[in-house]
Amino acid sequence: MTVKECYEKMGADYDEVFARLRTDERITKFLGKVLADGSYDLLCSSLKEKNMPEAFRAAHTLKGVCMNLSLNKLYVSSEKLTEALRGREDYGDDLLPLLDGVKSDYEAAMSAIKELVGA
Amino acid sequence: MKSKEKKKILVVDDSELNRSLLCDMLEDNFEIIEAENGMQAVEILHERELEISLMLLDIVMPVMDGFEVLATMNKQGWIKSIPVIMISAETGGAYIDRAYDLGAIDYISRPFDERTVKHRVASNFLLTIKQKEMSEMLSNQIYEKEKDNSLMIEILSHIVEFRNGESGLHVLHVQAITEMLLKELARKTDKYAISTKEMRLISNAAALHDIGKISVPNEILNKPGRFTPEEFEIMKNHTVEGAKMLENMTLRKDEALVKAAYQICRWHHERYDGKGYPDGLKGDEIPIAAQVVAIADVYDALTSKRVYKPPFEPDAAVKMIINGECGAFNPLLLECLNDISEKLKHELNVISFGDATESSIQDTVKQMLKDDAPDASDRSIRLLEKERLKFKYLADISREITFEYNSLPEMIKLSEWGAESLGTPIKIVNPLEDGEWTKIFPKDDLALFLHKLKTSKPEAPIVIERFQLNVHGEKKWYKVIGKAMWSDGETPEFEGAIGKIVDVNDETEAMEFLEQKAETDSRTGLLNHNAAKSRISRILANSKDKDKNYALVIFDLDNFKKANDVYGHLFGDEVLEVTAARIKENVRSTDIAARLGGDEFILFMEYKNTVKPLIDRIFKRLTVKYKDFDVGVSMGVACAGREDTEYDALLYKADTAMYVVKRDGKNSYAFYDDSMKNLLKNEKRQ
Fold this sequence. Notes:
The complex is a heterodimer.
Chain A: H1 3-10, H2 14-21, H3 24-36, H4 39-48, H5 52-69, H6 72-85, H7 95-117
Helix pairs in contact in A: 1-7, 3-7, 4-5, 5-6, 6-7
Chain B: E1 7-12, H1 16-26, E2 30-35, H2 38-48, E3 52-57, H3 66-76, E4 84-88, H4 93-101, E5 106-109, H5 114-164, H6 169-188, H7 196-206, H8 218-221, H9 229-236, H10 238-247, H11 256-267, H12 288-303, H13 314-322, H14 331-350, H15 353-372, H16 378-397, E6 401-407, E7 410-414, H17 416-422, E8 427-429, H18 435-440, H19 443-454, E9 462-471, E10 474-486, E11 494-503, H20 505-519, H21 529-543, E12 549-557, H22 560-567, H23 569-586, E13 592-597, E14 600-607, H24 612-622, E15 633-640, H25 647-663, E16 668-671, H26 679-684
């Protein structure tokens, strides 16, 4: 699989990321780091513990990562969740659909990346 | 660019991925230091402020966010020396504005574009370098300007001297002596209110004191023999001529330097007694600048070789001047001359042309930077850094536990030796919340100590406390001495503290041992009467308003004399020891037990509703047979009522009850009641 194909599979913008990061090697290297990034796990566990500030920071970090790698689809869903969490003090079930959105996009992205890096 | 020459950039972002992305983009040209939250960044800045050329800072981070970092950088003044570029996924205008308000110089939004990042970092980097260079340039310009001034003065004054046949050093000497005299004068009195700036001005102007001699014909000026009265008049006129030259400098006559030089030229031959020339001014009518230069001039003339005389020894010269052999001077200045006479000998020996100008110019530049530029220049930062290294070295070799306390961010820094002997890291961030640290230094004690420092006064900033610290698993006493650091200014602010922690365990233990020894009875280990009395008195005095019940028990051993007589004194001692042991086993730690002397003991205890079961139990435990000896006790008990606040009165009551027991056949106990009131008086003493 090429990097471009991987991006298509994730619903991400290859041309944009290539314009910024400039080599496939570098893009691949950082996609590999997304696999190791703990923000998604932190987001899930913080929400479970209803630690809202921590959940906000984790969602925010995830969003930032997506931005940097042009993972558009995951960016959109994590951005929605980030905004829902911003300044929020209490947990509510209305967050669940947003989290589900992030979850399915995240899993899709991860499986594509794993396929690319052969992990 | 070689790698060791790379400038350092601090990247602060909580996402490892983002950090390494930036690293990847920048590492060709810069060395990257990473911090994963604001607190780490501040710690790094504390340590390595001077190394860091630029900082990339995220906003949303755990522990300490980017705005807090900026606020801290403002408070510490780092924001002036380290350019900060914000990097954040936040795109809200309010966020950006706030970052700019707090001193950030640029903003890179995500997603990171390699060319943008490189370009922004490089251009901001260059910009800051420019600013630093410009401030260096500015100080160089000040330096150059001063150098020009000094140079002009020097040239002018040397022209005079060479014509005069004196050694060129005279001017430099007069300058140096003037400066030293002025410093000494300012130290002694504030009568003349001379600022450092004015001192510099006067000593520079002093070089011009004889410029009027240009108007004196060569043959008079260099005449080896005595002057005729007419010649002397011409000679004297160099004062007025010099002043005139300065006065005629229409363009610059208002400059402070010219004004000071005018005073010096015209009046450096006036005498304090009013008998000098040209104007016959008296006392402090003579401007202080001229008074000082007059004395400097005479001193150097005496100690230098002239065509008409050999040089005098410095001590002889000072003596001559003070004795009034060379004119009349301000007594205060004579004192100053006397005080600096030793220093003068050395100083004048080392003066040469180059040095004098160089050092005075450097002083000037330093002073100007201090006056005009509140930001520390690179040069002074380097000096500070040197001081810090010196301090660290001294702290390390002194083998003491020294510490620095920073209030923002809250942090304790120990000397290397200190950290080692306490078994902690050198740096403890947030010490009150640090579990490892508070295990060693109990949180409450630390909080108390910090509170005392923070509420100390700038005029009384020292706090000394004794604490029991838990060092390497052992509780030991330490004396903790701290000096609070207060900022200057009208409303001093607490900035932190420095101090040391001294092991006083042996000392404290020895004290405690002595105290304990003084309070206990050596035979039984119980308290002695005095100690018990003072403790009980204290409790009684404090119990007045409280709803507490106390009982005082006194007892002695029945037939103790017989035990001694029959079984010997050693056995008697054993009985006493056994009794004491039984007492210790059967009282609570809050009770007070003491041996009054002989075979008499007292107990003092608090009780809830009724005391009888307690007494009964103790009585039974005490009266157990020891070896062949039937231990019996006669025990009197007095319960302290509201009115019983005096120990002696209470003891008297218990004693009375004990007497009743003895009277009625011993080996029992009785409670005092008012019916016994006069018993002791009437019966016992019969």
